[in-house]
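Run TlpA family protein disulfide reductase through structure prediction, thanks.
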Amino acid sequence: MVVADPGEDVAEEIERLGDVARVVVEAPMGDLQSTFKVSGYPTVYVIDADGTVAGTDLDALALVGA
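Sure, done. The structure for TlpA family protein disulfide reductase is below.
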C-alpha cells in the first residue's frame, strides 16, 4: 500500500492500513506511483501467483474474478 503524503497528517491512515498491508509513504507521484501509473485513489491491483499484474482499476469490485 502506498500512501501519497501531500503534507497532511496521514498517521491515522497509515495505522489503519498497517494492520492489513505493508505501507510505504512517498510524495505524490513518487517512484512507485509513477512506475505503476497510478491515476487516482484508491488504485487497486491484482497480482497473480507469478507476481504479474493481472488487473488494475479504481474500483476493487471491478476486479472480482481478475
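The two ends are 19 Å apart (CA to CA).
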